[in-house]
Amino acid sequence: MVRASLFWAIFGLALASQQRLPVPDPLSQLPLEGYSERPNIVFILTDDQDLHLNSLDYLPHVQKHLIAEGTSYKKHFCTIALCCPSRVSLWTGKAAHNTNVTDVNPPYGGYPKFVSQGLNDNFLPVWLQNAGYNTYYTGKLFNAHTVDNYHSPHVKGFTGSDFLLDPFTYQYLNSSYQRNKDPPVYYEGEHTLDVLAGKAYGFLDDAIKEEAPFFLAIAPVAPHSNVAIESLEGDVEDFVANFSPPIPQDRYKHLFKDVKVPRTENFNPEKPSGVNWVRSLQRQSQKNVDFNDHFYRNRLRALQGVDEIVDGIVSRLKKHELLDNTYIIYSTDNGYHIGQHRLEPGKECGFEEDINIPLIIRGPGVPKGLSTEIVTTHTDLAPTILKLAGAPLRADFDGDAIPVSESGIEEAKTVRHEHVNVEYWGFALGEGKEWNGQSMSRFHHNNTYKGLRILGDSYNFYYSVWCNNEHELYDLNNDPGQLVNLLDKRSKAVTLFGHSLTKVVARLDSLLFVLKSCKADSCIHPWRALHPLGNVHNLHDALSARFDEFYEVQQKRIEYTRCEAGYILDAEGPQFENDGLVYRYGSPWSEWV
Q1: Which of these, 95, 86, 108, lies nearest to 566 by C-alpha position?
Q2: Which residues, renumbered to this chain, carry the PTM 3-oxoalanine (Cys) (predicted)?
Q3: Is 126 exposed, middle or buried (CB count within 10 Å of its CB: 0-12, 13-18, 19+)?
Q4: Out of 78, 83, 349, 467, which one is annotated catalytic?
Q5: Can you give the residue ranges of every domain in the chain?
Q6: Hey, which of 85, 281, 286, 476 would disulfide with 96, CB 3.0 to 4.6 Å?
Q7: CB 119 within 8 A of CB 85
Q8: In the annotation, is 84 catalytic?
Q9: pTM to 2 decimal places
Q10: Which CATH code for domain 46-417?
């Protein structure tokens, strides 16, 4: 039976190649080898957790139970550095420009936008239930999921749910949870992580009692800022909200008294960096830096409650003899910066601190203590979870399942894609305090951009185009702090890893041109969209001299018509499939000549 399935999968691959259809993975629909029972899956999703500020180093249970017993994916990226659109991409396997959920609140984002786009009927828990899984969720789901609209409609797809609700989501000592179809319950004076832990363990008990395999998602707000929202009316910059450092449980308030934000090269640099509004930032005062160190310490303290939950889940799975048949996935919605590039605490940028985030997986067949640098993204997680569950994958996924076996990871080093599509619309927000100690909520407008991360054997670049049509290019092999924009008019760079700068940028721009509006297979295999016969697989291949005219003369360039706060197509400039572009290389046979 397996041999027959494999035959038809390979036959389909050949047929797809002839007809220019998306190419399926011939092994993606085969049952997991070596495991007679379908595995359980626990997903722990934190909020705003960094990788580059070393937060994982301060979590002993994560280190013991997950990092030592699983695989760390060091080059895992969110594709939009903002919680709600990033979470929607995670649960749907689609880029934000395809979900059209691009903000935290209406009109461009939030739970109402998720519903209006038809996604409440078409996301991961619904697919898992269709595959025979019981599904449970507790914690934060989306922004603008409130005490007033939680039933309009109820979230679909969960056997059991207990959601944090706005406007109390980020209030560590005044949270509101809403269970199944019951009205909200308020937990004034109780720490949200203690409340969440009880709910998570309760759902785990419920799941264990059933005979079906289960999926359990646990989504704490830590280490997000504490936010007291007084009004949700109007545009996001009109909200009345007070930001302050996260509040840890009392038992952890004494920890890390001397810890400071890592003083990397890009921390509060003497010279400005970046483009657009980032380049105009003033250097932080010592008083500002001291407050941000305090802010950082409270993030680490707040994460201790999450670390407790990791230990509690692992202990209970072990007690019930389920640990060996359970995948545990640990990640976050987006990264975080504190002081890098002179930025106040926050996210929403394309810098590495904001988009390169933790991903750890342990479970059946997953190598222990392994660290890999294969490129993975949040749009890959829904396909990954479905594949682990033995459920059908979807043809419209913008992501590709992440390999979790040693052989799969090894193979991915040579065959997996090397790119990440990064995008953002709207505002950026500073969540700290001004040097004089006054509470602030700093908005930066026109923070709309398209970005490309590309990592190969000898290159490691970030390229972006902003809505004011400023451009950035960083060589992270030689400039890991992204301080030197090679496209700045003051830059003296003329070559890049043995090629002219102009030649490299032309390829990067064309690749991003595909990705900025890609769908399904063109998101996974963008070089194939440019070279349909498939003999260009990476940047090295594309730099062949025979493609110079194609990339440097024939192609249109990315440019915005104007800045907008959401995905409005006529503001996005030329599109890959429209405008009469020369976007594919030659005739069907010209690539072989």
Answers
A1: 108
A2: 83
A3: middle
A4: 83
A5: 46-417, 423-592
A6: 85
A7: no
A8: no
A9: 0.92
A10: 3.40.720.10
